[in-house]
Amino acid sequence: MHGISRRDVIPANDAASSPVTPRAEVERSATRKIQTRIIPFVFVLFVIAFIDRINIGFAALTMNRELAITSQQFGLLSGTFFWGYFIFEVPSNLLLHTIGARIWIARILISWGIVAMLTGFVQTAVHLYILRFLLGLAEAGYVPGIFLYLTYWFRQRQLAQNLAFFLTAVPAADIIGAPSSGVILDRVHWFGLGSWRLVADFGRGPRDPGRRTDIFLFACPTSRSQVSDKPGKKLDLGRTCQ
Question: Is the pLDDT assigned to residue 205 strictly greater than 70?
Answer without folding.
Answer: no
